[in-house]
Amino acid sequence: MSSAELQLVKKDMKSIWTGSSRRALLILLPVMLLVVIPAVYFVLILLMPEAPGARPPEALTALLPEYVSGLEYKQGWLVIFTDLLCPMLFLCVPILTGAASASYAFVMERESGTLETLLLTSMGPKSVFNAKTTSCTVLSVLISGAGFLAFALTVTVADVFAEVRLFFTLDWLILLVLEMPTLSLFSVVFVALTVTRVHSTVESLQTMGYLILPVAAIYLMQLTGIFRLNIIALILISAALAVLDVVFFNAASRGFTPEKLLERGGAGEE
Amino acid sequence: MDAIGAYDLTKVYGPGGGRPALRGVNLLVPEGRSMACVGPESSGKTTLIRLLSGLLRPSSGECSVLGLSPGYEASRLHSMVGTVLYSSKLYAELSLWDNLLFFAGIQRLARADAVERASFLLRRLNLWEEREHSPRQLSTGMFKRASLARALIHRPRVLLLDSQGAGMDLETAGLVRELLEYAGSQEGVTMLMCTQDMGFVQDFCQSFGLLHEGTLMARGSLESLRLASGAKLRASLRLKDGDKAPEGFRRQRDGLWQKALESEEEMPRLIMQVVSGGGSLYEARVVRPTLWEIYQAHLDSGRRREAEIHGETGDEAQLLQAEEPATESAVPEGG
């Protein structure tokens, strides 16, 4: 990475983070998804009434490790929530932060006219694209990583309190090391790919919905008890995302030309 | 060597075509010289700058800046070219000083060099006191000066300027002109300015291009454009109240007497005529048509030619000219 690209990466990360509304969004989203929602859910589980001899649905416990079937009702629900639904909440964070960062770095800069100024420097469009993609992805990964630490703390407290085995397994390691970074990059390049098609930052932020939908659908389908994303599935999904990252990155990079960007940006036709 | 060249340069926006924003433009700007392309809104000025700076690709024709093709060698080009466009802005979240240092860094200037250059430009443009302000806090004139500082931060060899002069306050216009003159004379910067403020560039540039609806009507020095347009020089006399001017002179609202001249060689004879006739001559000078008047004269002659091509009679052509209020004031007849 050239010194100019590094400077732009630093400037972009700082710009995204120092904007008070942007920072609030990037902090509140992970806190809500990874701390508040799990904490509320754990409290509700602990407070819910328990009939003598009640057990969590067998179809769900069958998807989980053997020891779960031996757990009590509340303990069982805690593990079901942590293992089957929390990955979805966790994966929403790289999607949301990646897409939000990219919306600011690409679309907002185009709207404010500073992207044009950057394209008038010796960096060239490809370098500008690389630097912006890097800054958004790094920021998304850092926020997701920090969010995971907060989540881990919340869940660990719940696990200790409910006297169940700690939640962190190989599945979570794959989510953290493979799926989260590839999903971050995917969200960023997806927004970058649409930068020449959207009209505003708000419209760009709406693309987050398209990205969250498939992730939510896959994880919610686990609650039917038909299937569970095992380690192999997670690795395959990560690999598929990595391939899509490369494809989308190249497509977005090719489309990142001044002419296309300025056409949509309402460049004067004087 | 020509620093800037455009050869049959045409730009049509959008896939469906339509009226070209720029049509068959040819121009050359030798290294170290300044040229201004002038015209009203929608005459193709911004498109020309965008094409030369590589932000747009031509629909047909070619252009080159310092021997580079802007559309294909943009990165190399921008290391040697500074561009000011009305739509290119500075970062609102950074101070003016930080903006300049950031863009200097992006242009690969060493930190010490960037600090020195930014200080020099801000002082020359009287923005030093505002260096810690956000661009959002600057007035329009200050922002224009700041944009110029950004474009000059890396000591470019060529400067492409869009909408210079337009909407500038007197202080800004003066400071910008001074800095551009310095850049031209001391740093050897070649300049192409596109503007509708013809007064701003008239005394500054060596050559001019007259743009109208995407077409370059004419180009050349002010004098060659004047000769081609048929715009006349005028003799202007200030006489003692009550004195009568020689034949052919007409009194203007400001009390001066004016008459169209075929050439300035006529002037000594006219002065002699007034003095030998016993008149009290306080002031005599040759008034040259302004760039705006020359532009209008070219526009009118173009319209007349068009009217002739379409088979309209001479009377109809004259009527067309008479309908243009700007024409009458542009080239006032002396007698």
Question: Tags for this entry?
Answer:
heterodimer; A: 270 residues; mainly alpha; 11 helices; elongated; B: 335 residues; alpha/beta; Rossmann fold; 2 domains; 6-stranded mixed β-sheet; 4-stranded antiparallel β-sheet; 12 helices; 13 strands; disordered C terminus
Descriptive notes:
The complex is a heterodimer of chains A (270) and B (335). Chain A has one domain. Helix content of chain A is 77%, strand content 0%. Chain A contains 11 helices and no strands. The model of chain A is unreliable at 265-270 (pLDDT under 50). The interface between A and B is large, with 31 and 40 residues.
Calculate the mean pLDDT score of chain A and round it: 87
Can you give the helix content of chain A as a percent range? over 70%
Cα gyration radius of chain A (Å): 21 Å
- How are helices and strands ordered from N to C of chain B? EEEHEHEHHHEHEHEEHEEEHEHHH
Largest sheet of chain B: 6 strands, mixed
Low-confidence stretches of chain B: 314-335
What is the distance, rounded to the nearest whole angstrom, between the alpha carbons of the first and last residues of chain B?
46 Å
Q: Based on the structure, what is the oligomeric state of the protein chains?
A: heterodimer
How many β-strands of chain A, per DSSP? 0
Taken as a percent bin, the fraction of beta residues of chain B is 15-25%
Largest interface: A-B, 31 and 40 residues
CATH T-level fold name of the largest domain in chain B? Rossmann fold
CATH class of the largest domain in chain B: Alpha Beta
